[in-house]
Amino acid sequence: MNSILNKINYLWIYFMFMFLYPSVVFSDIAENWQLGFQDPATPIMEGIINLHHDLMFFICIISVFVSWMLGRTLWHFEYKQNSIPSSLTHGTLIEIVWTVTPAIILLIIAIPSFSLLYAMDEIISPAITIKTLGHQWYWSYEYSDYLDENNEALLYDSYMIPEEDLELGQFRLLEVDNRIVVPVNTHIRIIVSAADVLHSWAVPSLGIKCDAIPGRLNQTSLFVKREGVYYGQCSEICGINHGFMPIVVEAVSLPNYISWIANKLSE
Ligand code: CUA
């Protein structure tokens, strides 16, 4: 009981801080007791968060209004207060109003929603194309824009680091041996597919969740605004090790990216 109370207290403090203070350090990983989003690193994720807040505005007004109406109805039409019921069964005007108003609200919501949806679908002449392939149970990444001396594309696997091999400061179930490295402020095309069963390539801070489907190429775009390490997980149940195929995206400056690519190619 005591520990539950402690948790409720903690939640309250957390809740107040969440609204009073914006985070000082970017959170690109899930936190304990997290309620909100991870911090955005792409314009798309910023759009998703803004749309969420826009919708919350309508949700708050609607919930307060509906609860108020429900309360008033229960109060005024309770059998003691209203012992002789009215025989009224229809009211054309009010029926038009309560049909048209929600329809207008839905239309208002549809405008930002559709513009975000189409923005997410847009691929703006990408400078780099990266192919990510889901396997049971790891990811593999292919940078086919660059060829090494054997004319082979850069291709490597990315496995989760098992718990016993973790070093101090590394995140359990989230760290991988080979990260996917991308440059910041560059339009990148991500091509997603799977080798065996359905997987899903998802990184919350980047606003990406793209299904990896065997025999089908899905594509999504990526434009990272700041350097950082972004953590994600496979988001489609794909077998017993579904929880053990995390994704780590490292966004670096363009010169660092070029030297990383050069190193990888000469390996
Ligand atoms: Cu791969 Cu779940």
TrEMBL record:
Which InterPro entries does its entry note?
Answer: CcO_II, CcO_II-like_C, CcO_II_C, Copper_CuA, Cupredoxin, Cyt_c_oxidase_su2, Cyt_c_oxidase_su2_TM_dom, Cyt_c_oxidase_su2_TM_sf
Where does this one sit in the cell? Answer: Mitochondrion inner membrane; Mitochondrion membrane
Please write the reaction equations for the catalytic activity of this protein.
4 Fe(II)-[cytochrome c] + O2 + 8 H(+)(in) = 4 Fe(III)-[cytochrome c] + 2 H2O + 4 H(+)(out)
Keywords on record:
Copper, Electron transport, Membrane, Metal-binding, Mitochondrion, Mitochondrion inner membrane, Respiratory chain, Translocase, Transmembrane, Transmembrane helix, Transport
**GO molecular function annotation:** copper ion binding; cytochrome-c oxidase activity; oxidoreductase activity
User: Mind naming one GO cellular-component term on file for this protein?
Assistant: transmembrane transporter complex
Q: Which residues form the Cytochrome oxidase subunit II copper A binding domain?
A: 125-263
Q: Does the keyword Metal-binding apply?
A: yes
| PROSITE patterns xref list | COX2, COX2_CUA, COX2_TM
Q: Relay the cofactor remark from the entry.
A: Binds a copper A center.
- Membrane topology per record: Multi-pass membrane protein
Q: Record's NCBIfam families? A: CoxB
Name of this chain's protein: Cytochrome c oxidase subunit 2
Question: What is the source species?
Answer: Schimmelmannia schousboei
Q: Which gene encodes it?
A: cox2
